[in-house]
Design a protein that fits this description.
Distance between the termini: 60 Å
Order of helices and strands: HHHHHHHH
Radius of gyration: 20 Å
Oligomer: single chain
Number of strands: 0
Helix content: over 70%
Largest sheet: none
Number of domains: 2
Strand content: under 5%
Number of helices: 8
């Protein structure tokens, strides 16, 4: 089963599930599937908007109820949460709108904002506005990418294979990079002197 066939069969459910979490890759592929006629672009955008809004709202409430403890117990998260908190004090509304566009902050951002003093209604308002910008932009990028590829390649089967190879290459590259960073980080830590 090809990627586009999978999206045509489980498409809207896959878009909803993907957008509840981070969702960019699923939404890009859904935009591509919409360009090929497997999905409706309008429905993709509406489902992505709903999934992104609900997902970030859930992370906000997670932060509201257990965010302080969750972040305090994880030093790496604490550093990034401090960045969110500092930005929130200066750029409250723009941060809430734009946090879904910030790599590495898509889930942590709403949790950290939930742990702050931002009210649920204020977060919902700007979160929905951010999702309304994000959904058509990312889906549109996938749609445009598919359109551009279709104009270059006649056989879309070739495009799917190239896309799959590209996705796998990027995933492996990112995995190796993260593994190397973890290894370098553990080697850089000074050893505790024997007591």
């Amino acid at each position: 089963m090809s990627i586009t066939q999978f999206l045509s069969e489980y498409g809207y459910l896959a878009v909803l599930a993907g957008c509840l979490m981070e969702g960019e890759s699923v939404l890009l592929l859904a935009g591509l599937a919409a360009q090929e006629g497997y999905l409706s672009f309008v429905y993709v955008v509406v489902v992505a908007f709903c999934g992104a809004t609900l997902g970030d709202q859930a992370f906000y409430f997670l932060g509201r109820y257990v965010g302080g403890r969750l972040i305090a117990n994880r030093p790496r998260l604490q550093v990034r949460a401090n960045v969110v908190t500092a930005l929130l004090q200066r750029y409250d509304a723009p941060l809430i709108i734009g946090v879904r566009f910030m790599y590495g902050f898509r889930i942590l951002g709403p949790i950290a904002i939930g742990a702050s003093t931002v009210s649920p209604w204020r977060f919902l308002t700007f979160n929905a506005l951010g999702a309304a910008l994000w959904a058509p932009l990312i889906a549109g990028a996938g749609y445009t990418f598919g359109y551009a590829l279709e104009s270059v390649f006649v056989d879309m089967g070739v495009v799917e294979k190239i896309g799959l190879v590209a996705v796998l290459f990027v995933a492996v590259t990112i995995g190796l990079h993260l593994r190397r960073r973890r290894r370098d980080g553990s080697e850089a830590r000074p050893e505790k002197p024997p007591s």
